[in-house]
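Hi,

Apologies if this is the wrong queue. I'm a grad student, and the batch job for Pectin acetylesterase from Nicotiana sylvestris produced an output file that my downstream script rejects. I'm not sure whether the problem is my script or the file. Here is the sequence I used:
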Amino acid sequence: MATHRFFQPMKWWQKLTRREWTIAAASLSILIFTLSFISHSHRFSINSTPPTDDLVPFTPLSNAQKKSAFCLDGSVPGYHLQKGFGSGTDKWVILVEGGGWCNSIKTCSVRQTTKLGSSRFMEPDVFHGILGSDQSLNPDFFEWNKVKIRYCDGGSFTGHPESEFKNGTGLFFRGQLIWEAIMDELLSLGLSNAKQALLSGCSAGGLAALIHCDDFREMLPKDVNVKCLSDAGFFLNEKDIAGIPTFERFYEDVVNLQGAAKSLKKDCTSRLEPYKCFFPEEFISNIKTPVFLVNPGYDFWQIQNVLIPDSADPHGSWLRCKLNITLCNSKQLEVLEDFRKSLLKKLDGFQQNPEGGMFIISCFSHCQTWMTGTWHAPYSPKIDNKTIAEAVGEWYFNRKAAKYIDCPYPCNPTCSHFSLT
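Support response: The file is valid. Your script probably expects a header line. Output copied below for reference.
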């Protein structure tokens, strides 16, 4: 597989730690490969000491057997938890890991041999970005209890076991049960006493954060400040450049295979085919809990898989462009700009929501909240001189309205665009 790097202006990637760079490269490799069509609970006590930059252990779900909550291969799912300190012991930020979806027995079976389908491959992790514990790099959430939920069901935590009887392959579609079991365990570990809570997620995890946002709100007392953040989780229902609804058909397969309809918004599935309710544009207006959307205007994953899948570009005329935006010609940039405009149009209604927030930056990127370089650092991308972390903090703590929409590419000199070549 090709190596991944960043290109002009080369600023923040050069300052990543060796460990963060390794994690980023490995995660991107798995993400791109997978999405191209395709013990016991960790108990803790209050602590006033900030954690060091150490590996956060993987915690297998202690109640997995009781709850029948299993990864695709039947292994026990889990999470990473780093306890809060100082004033953050009763505050929680939870990040749902991303990693695409599987839409067939074949693609789900492949995932069983990776950490996206089996906990057998899950290792300790290091927290950065929104999960970081350095105040200078994560000013609003550095003291909080931090959780990373690992993703091993292939359906954004929406699968139901009834669908397993149709496949006869031994695959487990238990995403909804995994979600419920992890929430039960976190509640028992102190989440039930939270004063503030933020559910976030990246990519497929960002979609999960939107799908389960109101459920998360209902788990906690009404006086708790509960909000949700979706990072690169607003996937568009757009036809590809050949005029084919390739991604819509993909989502239809995911929803049907995993029996996901029962987990989707009822006010959406009552008027549309369930698979259409996997697209946030169809249900975001019905989410009652305050939501913040972080999305690049030129999301490289959506460009490669929604707008220009390989099937729509048999001669490879888009290959260089969709891997590196600086290699696009003027005609190609027009197509990408139309895709960005489609995103903004579908967010028209959301922009009118006084409780909503957004950060739509014109970088060639994907998930941005889990890495320090794109979350909050002197060299991070900005809109109106605000980093993503600053915008999210403004919104979460009601300091000011936080709706940031960037000008078109290539206007933003703070962007460090991804290159996948």
